[in-house]
Amino acid sequence: MGEALGMTGYLAPEGFVDDLVAELGDVAVVHDRLVFAPGPARRVAWVENVWHDPVRLPVASIKTAAKALRGIQRNWALYPVRHHGRAKLIQEQLPHVSAKPLVFPTPAPQAPLGSWMMESETSIIAAARCSSPFRNGEVEFVENRTVPPNRAYLKLWEALTLAGTMPGPGSVALDLGSSPGGWTWVLHELGARVISVDKAPLAPAVAALPRVDFRRESAFGLVPQEIGKVDWLCSDVICYPERLLRLIHGWLDSGLCRNFICTIKFQGPTDHAATREFAEIPGSRVLHLHHNKHELTWMLVAPPPAPGSASAGIRQCMTPSHTHSATTSSACRGMDAGWW
């Protein structure tokens, strides 16, 4: 249904359209943050949502627009770029899609969520298949505003949600650049034993947690063989991308860690060449989280065990103390299924 555009849409993070355009190279048209480029989807990092196989739909009225979208599928999210009043009226005639913030560690939604925008008063562009199950790629959480020492914990919440698997009781996690302790707190809440490393101190409440081993030293002075096997390596350390890349390769070469979540921070202009080096690591991906700033997140995560396998039988899932126990079973189901 509709006219195939022969393009893919890429929704840039707020403030980073230029980075996305530079990464794509050739682009056809830009609608605010929504960039269309010829051909099928490309592997890019500076994007919050990818619109696969978009089509143009002629619409004579609000009613016919809503009917056309409903005829394709149930769930749609509006990207409001122009003709805002008309677009809002169309969206109101579509089935309701909950936009409630996620309670971590509840898994990401599984239902397909399409995206659409007003191109003109008489035409819309729509993509039934998008990369993110969240409205315009915006992952929002019910925040904990009392315990974590900073808001950096939201990045790790988002990364783990997108990964579809998490540490649990019995896991060992290494948190590099941990001060003041937001990521260490997340890992501890999930049940892991955390080796937390930074030259700056942890917040006292985090340092006092029972399974936190704080080491006040440089992350770059660590020798993997001296640390030993860890299940997760998480890094939010402030450094140049090249230095982080060397650290990661050291751990990859050691074979002592299978799961990595690391923030690539840029000081000055974006280093696209360094980004490509991270993306070339087999099995990994580089993405811009909704909670990232001028930074990207590199992830290399072992796939969740298949349901019923021996490893799935021993893998555990834990609900943090601030969530209801009913969340636990749904979180475990989400980790098994994955979504990305």
From TrEMBL:
<protein>
    <submittedName>
        <fullName>Methyltransferase</fullName>
    </submittedName>
</protein>
<keyword id="KW-0808">Transferase</keyword>
<dbReference type="InterPro" id="IPR002877">
    <property type="entry name" value="RNA_MeTrfase_FtsJ_dom"/>
</dbReference>
<keyword id="KW-0489">Methyltransferase</keyword>
<dbReference type="GO" id="GO:0032259">
    <property type="term" value="P:methylation"/>
</dbReference>
<feature type="domain" description="Ribosomal RNA methyltransferase FtsJ">
    <location>
        <begin position="150"/>
        <end position="238"/>
    </location>
</feature>
<dbReference type="Pfam" id="PF01728">
    <property type="entry name" value="FtsJ"/>
</dbReference>
<dbReference type="InterPro" id="IPR029063">
    <property type="entry name" value="SAM-dependent_MTases_sf"/>
</dbReference>
<dbReference type="GO" id="GO:0008168">
    <property type="term" value="F:methyltransferase activity"/>
</dbReference>
